[in-house]
Amino acid sequence: MIPDQSHGEKVLLRVKGEFLEMPGLRVTEAQARRLWGLDADSCGALGHELVRAKFLFRTRDGAFMRVECEALEDLRPTRFTRQRGVDPGRMKIEP
Questions:
Q1: 46 and 38 in contact (C-beta within 8 Å)?
Q2: What would the DSSP string read from start to end of 14-72?
Q3: Which of 56, 64, 67, 71 gives 50 a disulfide partner, CB atoms 3.0 to 4.6 angstroms apart?
Q4: What is the spatial distance between Cα 47 and Cα 63, in angstroms, rounded to a whole number?
Q5: At what angle do helices 29-36 and 7-21 cross, to 10 degrees?
Q6: Per-residue confidence (pLDDT) for residue 7, from 0 to 100
Q7: What is the pLDDT of residue 38?
Q8: Which CATH fold would you assign to the domain 8-87?
Q9: Using CA atoms, how far apart are residues 27 and 16, in angstroms rounded to an integer?
Q10: How does pLDDT run across 3-58, given as a tens digit for each residue?
Q11: Using an 8 Å Cβ cutoff, are 19 and 66 in contact?
Q12: Residue ranges per domain, the chain?
């Protein structure tokens, strides 16, 4: 890593790297704090930033998972959903 990177940037790269290395990784906020040695405020800010950047999303129970293009492709409207009046924009991404 670049020597003058801040600690926050290093943690961000580490977290992103772990989600990229392990497809399907799902961690709660408490697990993330323990795994990456973060306090509650730092972990919340990091999670919020990665969700805002559309790198992660929150599951119904609040866990973090990586947004994967393949999962988004499965939500494209099909002839069936259009005929049934299903609004794919209102669908939630869940594992």
A1: yes
A2: HHHHHHHHSTT-EE-HHHHHHHHT--HHHHHHHHHHHHHTTSEEE-TTS-EEE--HHHH
A3: 56
A4: 10
A5: 120
A6: 81
A7: 94
A8: Arc Repressor Mutant, subunit A (1.10.10)
A9: 13
A10: 446 888 899 999 999 999 999 999 999 999 999 999 999 999 999 999 999 999 99
A11: yes
A12: 8-87
